[in-house]
Write a structure and sequence with these properties.
Radius of gyration: 20 Å
GO molecular function: FAD binding; oxidoreductase activity
Protein name: FAD-binding PCMH-type domain-containing protein
Number of helices: 10
Shape: globular
Bound molecules: 2-acetamido-2-deoxy-beta-D-glucopyranose
Pfam family, one: FAD_binding_4
Organism: Collybiopsis confluens
Oligomer: single chain
Structural class: alpha+beta
Family: Belongs to the oxygen-dependent FAD-linked oxidoreductase family.
Strand content: 15-25%
């Protein structure tokens, strides 16, 4: 126990530098609404552009976005629609699997967020698993509507992919959502008619014994991509004889909304919140710029991100520190 604490202490000072895959998300109230105009009237659009509206990008424009992200643009479907597409549907275990949900761009950890209650007053537009519709649980052919899920997703493999997505959403006045693992209890990783940026593939974990910030040696640090799940990171740090201040849910992503929301941990009574242990963030801000954020570079943003709440400031690409959290509320997903 003592040696663990010592290791933790070392990690506390050093380990929490993480890189975050960023996709900048800002509060919609801060967004300039006049950036997109109706092509017919030229007047400012009060809402994000949706399919069927003049301002919504045509197929060819989406194809250009797809090319700019090396073909990593995919159509998004709900997890129920995904299961319906499998022979025999999903098993109960598959439906409940956070690992499976991490791998399906449109799947939230809690499927209710995919159901589209807002636009469907009486009942949601998507069924739950397979063709079984709760609460009766009798087989029926319920409709698989589009649900409260995005239209397209960029399965980002680099910060540049995230930048392209943020810039595209900004340019075309589209709703933007970010998903690392989709655990957000408020469903802020999904939104209807949105462009989703998935950071799931940002799986880099890099250790440094002498991580420097402003010329100062901060010691041992781990830098993690914003797709790295906590269990993966715990395994990697354990192999190095180290630990970091992280949460308990295996499939929650460290450098994501978890950290931006502060990051509770069993180690917090001794070492503070996860965000207290972060040394640096690599983020994409709303104008598509990739920024390094630490106590000497963009220090105001560093301050804001360490307590400002998930999704309110930036989209992380990587954290060099402790796990960061990148959560976004539905309403804040608009760029
Ligand atoms: C994006 O491009 C890739 C590669 O050409 C293609 O497989 C994929 O279907 C395209 N995505 C969309 C949404 O059209
Ligand atoms: C669902 O639709 C299929 C194909 O139309 C049909 O064969 C089946 O009987 C339907 N099931 C129910 C429960 O209505
Ligand atoms: C992940 O690490 C590899 C090898 O160091 C590097 O080439 C790649 O750019 C990194 N990816 C990201 C998203 O940082
Ligand atoms: C983008 O935003 C960042 C952070 O506010 C700022 O430093 C940068 O100058 C902006 N870039 C452009 C092109 O506006």
């Amino acid at each position: 126990m003592i040696s663990l604490l010592k290791l933790t202490y070392i990690v506390w000072f050093n380990l929490l530098s993480g890189k975050i895959a960023s996709a900048h998300i800002i509060d919609s109230s801060h967004v300039k609404r006049d950036t997109a105009t109706s092509s017919k009237t030229g007047s400012p659009s009060p809402c994000r552009c949706a399919p069927g509206q003049d301002c919504f990008p045509p197929v060819q424009t989406w194809a250009l976005l797809n090319s700019s992200v090396s073909g990593r643009l995919v159509n998004v479907i709900s997890s129920a629609a995904f299961c319906n597409g499998l022979p025999g549907g999903c098993s109960e275990a598959q439906w409940a699997s956070a690992v499976l949900r991490n791998n399906i761009p449109g799947a939230m950890n809690q499927a209710n967020w995919e159901q589209d209650y807002v636009s469907s007053q009486d009942s949601p537009s998507v069924c739950f698993r397979n063709t079984i519709q709760p609460p009766s649980n009798t087989p029926q052919n319920c409709s698989q509507g589009s649900g409260n899920v995005p239209l397209f997703a960029i399965i980002a493999e680099s910060a540049q992919d995230i930048q392209k997505g943020v810039q595209f959403a900004q340019r075309h006045n589209l709703r933007l959502t970010i998903k690392s693992s989709g655990h957000d209890y408020l469903g802020r990783s999904t939104a209807k008619n949105a462009l989703l940026i998935s950071t799931h593939k940002l799986q880099n974990i890099t250790f440094s014994d002498h991580f420097t910030i402003g010329g100062k040696d901060k010691g041992s640090v781990v830098t993690v991509g914003s797709g790295v799940a906590l269990n993966t990171l715990y395994t990697a740090t354990k192999a190095k004889g180290k630990i970091f201040v992280g949460g308990t849910a295996a499939t929650v992503v460290a450098a994501s909304g978890y950290v931006q929301g502060a990051g509770h941990s069993a180690l917090s009574p001794a070492y503070g919140l996860a965000v207290d242990n972060v040394l640096e963030f690599t983020v994409v801000v709303a104008n598509g710029t990739l920024l390094t954020v630490n106590e000497v570079k963009n220090s105001d943003l560093f301050w804001a991100m360490r307590g400002g709440g998930a999704g309110s400031q930036v989209q992380m690409v990587e954290d060099s520190l402790e796990p960061l959290r990148v959560g976004v509320s539905k309403k804040r997903h608009h760029i």
